[in-house]
Amino acid sequence: MIKHCIVTPNSFKKKPLWLRMLNTAWEGSYFLGTKIRLDKDHLIRLARKQTGLHSFGNNFWEEPLDRLIDSINQEAELNPVGRFITQKRLTGLLATRLRAEYWFKKYPEILDKQLYPVILICGLQRTGTTKLHRLLAADPGNRVLSSWEAINPVPLNEKPTEVARRIKAARISEKALKLMAPGFFSIHPVEYEKPEEDILLLDTTFLSTTPEATMYVPSYAAWLEQTNQSYAYEYMVKLLKFLQCQRPAKQWVLKSPHHMEFLDLAKKYFGHVHFIWTHRDVSESLPSFMSMVALSQAIFSDHVSLERVAGHWVRKTGYMLSKGIAFREANPDQKFTDVFYEDLIASPMSVLGKLYINGQIISPELFQKFLDAERLNAPNRFGNHVYNLEDFALKPDELHGILNHYVNFLKTVRR
User: Which of 15, 18, 184, 220 is the most exposed place for a label (fewest CB within 10 A)?
Assistant: First the structure.
């Protein structure tokens, strides 16, 4: 376990020696034909061979995958390991789709089930969303998406041991991330048995903001903003219904900053939804997130720039906030609960009391579960993350024009 390390936005430059050597040797062998192929038809063949299945479903939309692969090949400048991981990831998503369609055809009644009511944590990145998500996951009545489920949301086969295989795969992924980016867990611990963001379910449609957070894919990101995401949310609901059949509960607790941009679709497809909007000073949350993006991108590419990361995510953050505020102003009766980062850090149990005030009772047993979760997910247990806007050649004044609308919005929320 990594402890007592200090991670900064420039930590992405300090790649493990073994990883640098592997990339150098592998790239040097490209003339032998060792370069990993990122081609849609090839990936589809690999997924079909891996699963022994053929159908992606009648409504499978290939354009998002085409757009993503083209952007990766033209813009992302992936290193050999990055190409390898990307091929495995895209093939895995296609394989998930194949398996999902197999199960939906075999058990069509799964899709006739009612989706559980949804509590959706939709605040921006680095505003306390993970902390709150993991606290709420301590309630046995709350259904969360575990990391091992996010990687493989549908069974790999019909054998009794298949769940153990999915868990093992997630544990291997966790260990690999620690090896390739030792400081990443100081920013955002990705632990195989802990709750994970449901954006990974949207990834199965190749319509999500995951790629632009892990690679430089500006043309894909621009196309995504202009594209109707209904297809992605509709398919995500299918996967959620399948997951709740595998492990029942009373309600879903989902979380991903991705939803800030698409609250209208969350409302449309999730039905009964209670939004929890976490808030934090953007001059603090934004450099923290951009530092994480730089560290993520450095796994895949040797051409990472803090200035380029900032150029993309400062504008993107303003855009996401404008979309979220517009939805809220247009839907004044929609249930929202606002949680402020400083309150969550100072008194998490008080914040939980606020969330459980509407008819739900925090029993002594549940209160103890919350305390245990708070202890197990203590901050800085993997190291310290130190960051500021200046690391990205930014000053707070430069954010005002982009985020002024949000600052004024917060004044109304705090009343």
Answer: 18
Q: Is residue 258 part of a domain?
A: yes
Looking only at the bridges linking them, the beta strands covering 273-279 and 251-255 are: unpaired
Residues 218/330, Cβ–Cβ less than 8 Å: no
Secondary structure letter of residue 370 according to DSSP = H
From the number of C-beta atoms within 10 Å of its C-beta (0-12, 13-18, 19+), residue 338 rates as middle
Query: What does each C-alpha distance from 115 to 103, 239, 263 come to in angstroms?
Result: 17, 10, 17
**Who's near 189: CB < 8 A, 6+ residues apart?**
381, 382
Question: Is the model's pTM score more than 0.90?
Answer: yes
3-class SS shares of the chain: helix, strand, coil, % to 5: 60, 5, 30
Element (H, E) at 278: strand 273-279
Task: Decide: 147 and 302 in contact? Cβ < 8 Å.
Answer: no
Q: Which domain holds residue 326?
A: 6-413
Q: What is the pLDDT of residue 1?
A: 43
Question: Total structural domains in the chain?
Answer: 1
What torsion do the CA atoms of 213, 216, 220, 226 make, to the nearest 10 degrees? 60
Buried b (16+ CB within 10 A) or exposed e, 59-79: eeeeebbebbbbbbeeebbbb
Q: In this predicted structure, what is the pLDDT of residue 137?
A: 97
Assess if residue 1 is contained within a domain: no
pLDDT of residue 357: 67
8-state DSSP, 195: B
Tell me what pLDDT residue 225 has: 97
135: domain CATH number is 3.40.50.300
Residue 11 falls inside a structural domain? yes
Long-range pairs of 175-180 with CB within 8 A, sequence gap ≥ 24: 178/2, 179/16, 179/19, 180/16, 180/19, 180/81, 180/299
CB atoms within 10 A of CB 82: 23
Pairing between strand 273-279 and 118-121?
parallel
Closest CA to 300 of 131, 45, 72: 72
Rounded to whole angstroms, the Cα distance separating 309 from 287 reads 10
What is the per-residue pLDDT for 399?
87
CB 94 within 8 A of CB 44: yes
Query: SS3 for 59?
Result: coil
> Which residues of the chain are under the pLDDT cut of 50?
1-2
**pLDDT one-digit tens code per residue, 241-265:** 999 999 999 999 999 999 999 999 9
Which pLDDT score is estimated for 2? 45
